């Protein structure tokens, strides 16, 4: 058994892992996070894993405005190194999803309506994000506020998702565009027109 597997086995037995989270399912695992803010807004299903460098920001107060922020992650979902989730509303991720390294998911935008005032001192605009089941996200892909992604979606590396994506699609580019859709009658991926 290699060192990484031994470390994972020991971490899974750590009773302190579950302390503070709204829900932390069986065998869920988070390694060396850079930042996990407000654990009480994080709901993890069973067998959820975050590798080194995870950052989960739960924003419940911005410029004296209160937010009911949650990050809800389904069973068997994994995040590779340095993934980041920022939520001031609801980010809901389904089951059996895989997020490659450095994926960003956020449900907020900074307002820039007031000229001459630092953007970080202005209001935020919150629009919830939903990601379905069995999705795959390539390295450095980004999902921005207000996006709903269906089931069985493949998001290519470096893709910027700014619009809704229906189920059974492949999305690539900046901004992300659908290039393939699964044809169930022919049981294969086809070019999307």
Which helices and strands occur, and which strands form pairs?
Layout (H helix, E strand, L loop, with lengths): L2 H10 L10 E2 L4 E2 L4 E2 L5 E3 L4 E2 L4 E4 L2 E2 L2 E2 L3 E4 L4 E2 L4 E4 L2 E4 L4 E2 L4 E3 L1 E3 L13 E3 L2 E3 L4 E2 L4 E2 L4 E2 L4 E2 L4 E2 L7 E4 L4 E7 L4 E4 L2
Parallel strand pairs: 1-4, 2-5, 3-6, 4-9, 5-10, 6-11, 9-12, 10-13, 11-14, 12-17, 13-18, 14-19, 17-20, 18-21, 19-22, 21-23
Antiparallel strand pairs: 7-8, 15-16, 23-24, 24-25
Question: Can you walk through the features of this model?
Answer:
- The protein has 193 residues and is mainly beta.
- It is built from one helix and 25 strands.
- A nine-stranded mixed sheet has the order 2-5-10-13-18-21-23-24-25.
- A hairpin with a 2-residue loop joins strand 7 and strand 8.
- The chain is globular, with a radius of gyration of 18 Å.
């Amino acid at each position: 058994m290699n060192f990484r597997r031994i470390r994972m086995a020991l971490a899974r037995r750590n009773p302190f892992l579950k302390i503070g989270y709204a829900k932390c399912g069986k065998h869920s695992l988070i390694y060396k996070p850079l930042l996990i803010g407000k654990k009480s807004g994080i709901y993890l299903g069973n067998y959820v894993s975050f590798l080194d460098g995870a950052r989960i920001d739960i924003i419940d107060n911005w410029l004296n405005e209160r937010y009911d922020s949650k990050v809800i992650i389904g069973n068997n979902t994994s995040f590779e190194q340095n993934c980041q989730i920022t939520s001031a509303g609801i980010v809901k991720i389904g089951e059996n999803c895989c997020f490659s390294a450095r994926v960003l998911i956020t449900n907020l935008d900074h307002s820039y309506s007031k000229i001459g005032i630092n953007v970080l001192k202005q209001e935020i605009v919150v629009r919830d994000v939903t990601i379905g089941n069995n999705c795959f996200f390539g390295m450095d892909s980004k999902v921005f506020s207000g996006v709903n992604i269906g089931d069985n979606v493949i998001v290519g590396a470096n893709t910027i998702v700014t619009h809704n994506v229906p189920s059974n699609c492949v999305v690539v580019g900046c901004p992300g565009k659908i290039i393939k859709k699964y044809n169930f009658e022919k049981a294969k991926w086809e070019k999307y027109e």
